[in-house]
Amino acid sequence: MSPVPISQINTGHIDDVQELRKAKPTLVPERFVRDATERPTLQLANRSPIACVAHDHDSYEVPIIDFSKLMKVDKDEGLWRAEISKLKRACQDWGFFQVVNHGIDLSLVEGIEEVAKEFFMLPLEEKQRYPMVAGTVQGYGQAFVFSEDQKLDWCNMFALGVEPQFIRNPKLWPKNPPKFSGTVEDYSREVRKLCQNLLNSIAITLGLKEGTFNEMFGVGVQAIRMNYYPPCSRPDLVLGLSPHSDGSALTVLQQGKGSSVGLQILKDTKWVSVQPVPNALVINIGDTLEVLTNGKYKSVEHRAVTHKEKDRLSIVTFYAPSYEVEIGPLPEMVDEINHPCTYRRYNHGEYSKHYVTSKLQGKKTLDFAKIIN
């Protein structure tokens, strides 16, 4: 989330979707209407996840990982080995999983949701005191918009750089709601621990030393983004968030309690909805881990859809290496005969800059890292 503005970007007029919904509940401006090939169907957008796939829905249930077993809370070696094995399959076959018993206090999980919702419900004039400048990804507005004819997402975003301190823009941290900043600090600290512990477990699934990723990452870069998706009169025409993979190492998603089902992942060429599990957090592999594992664990394309009657809130944390770190496939992940190196080495700060200055377009940003034969 390197705050690197691009000069002379003409994004054209961008409607605030909450205000649009209030003033003209049935209107969907042309900039939000997707080309026919990109549109979700009403079935995908508004029915249960089981209804989103035509065959053998059991095979499309996102894996659930019990974090307490990874941490050996029960001091049971057998349970730990079984959970490590489940984690390995989840990373290899899905790139997405839900974590239960994650150790983050429920009051904090509820608290971050409360202040996020309070922020989005503020008057527009107050939210616009923290604008997301074109070409950046911090503040309030829409990120990843670079031209006046680019299709827009049916979503309002508020994003902040959290760690290390130098990526923060203090002017963008709101005074209202009063508990906002403190809650973000406390929540981010706990999510950071979760990411670091998960990276240790993921290293073990790869046969690596437990601390491999955390030692390599240095002072990891962490950012938080809150997404609010108002209801949309034509959810079959719009997307809440364009298809993309994440540039992070790990992404942690909290789905708002009572929100519509909106997260979809591309699995076996089908868009599959992720049903929220109570008090669980959704984890996904980012581009950085795909490169480090030489494609053994892949980042996965995902998107958000909207609902005709219900709104949706999500809170997303991105965790990645320090900008100074050089990234490339780990030697243990390369076998010149069976698994030749498919990604080049590069500076993570350069990739981060490339990612935030590109529009969301599937996994296209990862082309930056690929070796072209």
TrEMBL record:
Show the coiled coil region(s): none
Which Gene Ontology terms cover its molecular function? L-ascorbic acid binding; metal ion binding; oxidoreductase activity
Q: InterPro entries, per this entry?
A: DIOX_N, IPNS-like_FE2OG_OXY, IPNS-like_sf, Oxoglu/Fe-dep_dioxygenase_dom, Plant_2OG-oxidoreductases
Pfam families in UniProt: 2OG-FeII_Oxy (PF03171), DIOX_N (PF14226)
The domain of life is Eukaryota
Cross-referenced PROSITE patterns: FE2OG_OXY
What is this protein called in UniProt? Fe2OG dioxygenase domain-containing protein
